[in-house]
Amino acid sequence: MAAPQRRYRSTLPTEPAWPVWERAPGNKRSGSERRKMRGRKRRFAILVIVPVLLMLGSVYLHTVSAGLESRTQGLQNELDATRAQGERLEVDVAKLSAADRVRPLAREKLGMRDAGSADLEVIKGGEREDGTTHAGAEEGGGQH
Questions:
Q1: What average pLDDT does this structure show over 67-81?
Q2: Residues 6+ positions from 41 with CB-CB distance below 8 Å
Q3: Among 113, 80, 124, 27, which Cα is nearest to 135's?
Q4: Average pLDDT for 60-85
Q5: Measured at the alpha carbon of residue 104, what is the angle toward residues 121 and 99, in degrees to the nearest 5?
Q6: 55, 83, 96, 117: least buried by Cβ within 10 Å?
Q7: How many CA atoms lie within 13 A of 76 on its CB side?
Q8: Is the model's pLDDT at 9 over the cut of 70?
Q9: How far apart are CA 81 and CA 75, in angstroms?
Q10: What secondary structure does DSSP assign to the chain, as a single string?
Q11: pLDDT tens, 96-127?
């Protein structure tokens, strides 16, 4: 197997010879040309790439914002429904604890009766329900 041959760029005998800077394919540019190229790249980045990135960021933020707004609206609807249910439950509690409903249930199920003047008995002197006597109040003692 033969080794690859180098190819040289040569001129035909009928053409004039090319200058060295045109012939060399990997010719390095001078300093001013490099500075111009860097300046062009910077301008391209500033005028094209930066606005494109800003636009994409703006689109992303608007998308996220729209998603959060829809979620907020859903949670607000759920909160309103829960508050309405709480108000209905408060009305139900008020209805169920009304005296005109509780008294007949107490009479029927628990055997209780309404207190009347004949049923009430006033006890004077002696001990209170908490086990203390009334003597301190009768003798003019101070309140605790």
A1: 96
A2: none
A3: 124
A4: 96
A5: 80
A6: 117
A7: 6
A8: no
A9: 10
A10: -PPPPP------TTSPPPPHHHH-TTPPPPHHHHHHHHHHHHHHIIIIIHHHHHHHHHHHHHHHHHHHHHHHHHHHHHHHHHHHHHHHHHHHHHHHT-HHHHHHHHHHHH------TTT-----SSB-TTS-BSHHHHTTPPP-
A11: 888 888 888 888 888 887 777 676 677 776 66
Please give the backbone phi and psi of residue 31, each rounded to the nearest 5 degrees, phi first: -60, -40
What residue type is assigned to position 32 of the chain?
A: S
Residue 27 burial class via C-beta count within 10 angstroms: exposed 0-12, middle 13-18, buried 19 and up: exposed
pLDDT in tens, 130-140: 767 655 555 55
Ramachandran angles phi, psi of 26, nearest 5°? -100, 35
Distance (Å, rounded) from C-alpha 56 to C-alpha 62?
Answer: 10
Question: Where on the phi/psi map is residue 85: left (φ > 0), alpha (ψ -120 to 50), or beta?
Answer: alpha
% of the chain surpassing 70 pLDDT? 63
Report the alpha-carbon distance of residue 48 to residue 76 in Å, rounded: 42
pLDDT higher than threshold 60 for residue 66: yes
Residue 23 has pLDDT above 50, yes or no: no
